[in-house]
Amino acid sequence: MVQYGIYALAAAMVAGSVARIAFLLICRRPVAARVCGTDESVLERAHDAATYRWSRYRDPLGDHDRWKSVRVRVAYVVDAVEHRADVRHTVDRARDMGAALPDTHIMLWYDPAAPDRVTTSGPGAAMLTIACAALLAIAARGVPF
Q1: Coil, strand or helix: which one is 90?
Q2: Which of 35-49, 81-95, 101-115 is least confident?
Q3: Cβ 10 vs Cβ 59: under 8 Å
Q4: Which partner from 5, 8, 17, 108 sits 20 to 30 angstroms from 77, CA to CA?
Q5: Cα(89)–Cα(28) distance, integer angstroms
Q6: Count of alpha carbons within 13 angstroms of residue 112, beta-carbon side
Q7: What separation in angstroms does the CA of 140 have from each of 4, 6, 16?
Q8: What letter would DSSP give residue 96?
Q9: What is the pLDDT of residues 73-101, one digit of tens each?
């Protein structure tokens, strides 16, 4: 009985992820955006990366949050018109948050009807969810009850 519940959960995860991917591919368009600035200074980024590396060295089995969400100001061009937006972007603390440094590029998904509406959440997260659902379904085969 528990096995069928796990299968149902995995199926719901796959259905939601497929719907998200379909929505992005049908209703949104990808565009490369240039990061103009972040909500953290260079000193804050360096301190955050250094403390993360030090805590990993001192306590390698501890629960360390490697990923951090920062707000970035981006500029992107749609139909020869430059747009600017503030978006949330997830960065890797272990790499000195280089993905959110000014003058780097990130991928955005914008609404063609309203190019000012953007998101940084692409189909990659949904594909990862599908992979996790597949692993969950495979693990559920061994559940004896």
Answers
A1: strand
A2: 35-49
A3: no
A4: 17
A5: 18
A6: 8
A7: 8, 6, 20
A8: T
A9: 999 999 999 999 999 888 776 665 555 57
